[in-house]
Design goal:
This protein has 456 residues and is an alpha/beta fold.
């Protein structure tokens, strides 16, 4: 097989167009493009891509089926190990996972496995294959807490096997981070809506606006409980001026924008947000916040400030490039030490100029504060500094073990210290990825079924 076939480039909206709307900007492959890209697979005897995939999808077989134009077969391969394939095909950090292990990537660009997966899953959705086939009722009931990808994956398996699933979600909408966090220009809302509809059609009941504090209360009523409560507590800086009007956590900022309707002009409106917006942080969440900000009608200037250099930024390189192309200004080796305001409203961020010191425990060079200060004239600041776990359930539920960070402790089957209570996703690992949450939800569903069958 020729080694120099270039990767099929996915069509995308131009930066100057896409930063003016919330439309999905990577347009996906056509049938012909997906087949051509799948043909670049070298069919390695020991497929690194499979090793790199957190759910070990059978990628070589999947790509071979696409190459033959048998998309139904390709979809079936993916569904063996993944039940959120279009979401994963669209938002997984492929460069660190399957594509990062593709042998083609050594000399040229890796096979665009994510892009091909996205094409096949979209094809499956458009051809009615994402509807669930539901078995006769088992008479057993399972409560899931939270409605993010961990619960979606768990609920899908259980509902299809005839278990009655009731999802308790504290918010008024379904989807967890998929709904409030991941912007619609990266993940089209029709993808999430299709999944939610499939779950509803399979009999999953969603009770919105219901916050659960004590898992034992549910464990008394349901045969089993799954806790997919995510990592929802935003990290704050603890610096003066943080409570000024105009300073938001990334969760507040992103949900205000991502949950708002799209207007006729293709934009979302967040009127309380100002014109000069400074996002603090260097991860993917910071990129999402900045890219959301730049798309707001009133945005004139959007900065990202980060305390190390671009080299140490945890955001994936693609996200970083997209953010730059869209006109966001990166200010590295800067860290806010104070937010200033007038009449309670933010007007300036005072930032320390940083230097890099010796490597810290993460292996990255430690940022060291100098005496020098720079000031940004801004009216909005967004803190994208990470998330931790809410300890309410672990502290209110007798017998439920969690670590010091509030992450539930589970065994390899996703079972907690309470026999019929399971957990998975960010609630167990801390903030991670969709595919890892999905995997945990699927493992827990299988374990719940085994336990309930044994008890029969
Ligand atoms: C802005 C942003 C962008 C991201 N982008 C990506 C990406 O591109 N690719 C990727 O792989 N990962 C991404 N991630 C990470 C990924 O979204 C998460 O790892 C994933 O959503 C975790 O799924 P989960 O189901 O465990 O939790 P969540 O998605 O957080 O869902 C948890 C749900 O539980 C609900 N809940 C919490 N406590 C209770 C309670 N007591 N009672 C009732 N309901 C409760 C919450 O309201 C929430 O709806 C991103 C994260 C963020 C914040």
């Amino acid at each position: 097989m020729a080694s120099n076939i270039p990767r099929v480039k996915m069509k995308a909206l131009e930066p100057g167009v896409r930063n003016r709307n919330f439309e999905v900007f990577l347009k996906g492959y056509t049938k012909e493009e997906a087949m051509a890209e799948a043909s670049r697979c070298l069919g390695c005897k020991v497929p690194g891509c499979r090793e790199g995939c957190p759910v070990n999808n059978d990628i070589p077989q999947f790509l071979a089926a696409v190459r033959e134009g048998d998309f139904a077969k390709a979809y079936a391969y993916i569904c063996e190990r993944s039940n959120l394939s279009e979401i994963c095909g669209t938002v997984c950090p492929h460069e660190d996972q399957c594509e990062g292990h593709c042998i083609r990537g050594i000399k040229s660009e890796p096979v665009a496995i994510g892009g091909v997966e996205r094409f096949v899953s979209q094809w499956a959705r458009e051809n009615g294959l994402t509807k669930l086939k539901v078995k006769a009722s088992t008479g057993k009931t399972v409560a899931c807490v939270g409605s993010g990808p961990a619960t979606m994956a768990c609920a899908q398996i259980l509902a299809a096997k005839g278990y009655k699933v009731v999802v308790y979600e504290e918010k008024e909408y379904i989807g967890g981070v998929l709904a409030w966090g991941i912007p619609s220009y990266r993940l089209g809302r029709e993808v999430i809506d299709d999944k939610i509809q499939a779950l509803k059609d399979a009999g999953v009941e969603f009770r919105l606006g219901e916050k659960i504090s004590d898992a034992n209360e549910l464990a008394k009523v349901y045969d089993a409980v799954f806790l997919g409560t995510g990592a929802t507590v935003p990290t704050r800086m603890g610096i003066p001026g943080e409570s000024l009007e105009g300073v938001y956590t990334a969760a507040e900022f992103l949900s205000k924008i991502n949950l708002a309707p799209i207007s006729e002009d293709g934009r979302r409106h967040f009127d309380a947000c100002g014109k000069r917006i400074l996002v603090v942080g260097g991860g993917n969440v910071a990129m999402d916040a900045a890219r959301d900000a730049v798309r707001l009608a009133q945005a004139e200037k959007v900065y990202i400030v980060y305390r190390r250099t671009e080299e140490e930024m945890p955001a994936c390189s693609e996200e970083l490039e997209h953010a730059k192309e869209e006109g966001i200004e990166f200010c590295t080796l800067r860290n806010p030490v104070e937010f200033m305001g007038e009449n309670g409203r933010l007007t300036q961020a005072v930032c320390a100029v940083m230097e890099l010191g010796e490597p810290d425990s993460s292996g990255r060079r430690r940022p060291v504060e100098t005496e020098e200060r720079v000031t940004f004239d801004i009216d909005t600041a967004v803190l994208a500094l990470g998330f931790s776990n809410d300890k309410e359930i672990s502290e209110s539920t007798e017998g439920l073990d969690a670590d010091k960070w509030g992450c539930f402790t589970v065994n390899e089957n996703g079972r907690t210290s309470i026999p019929n209570v399971y957990a998975g996703g960010d609630a167990v690992t801390g903030a991670a990825t969709v595919v890892k949450a999905m995997k945990a939800g699927m493992i827990a569903a299988k374990s719940i079924m085994e336990q309930l069958k044994e008890e029969q």
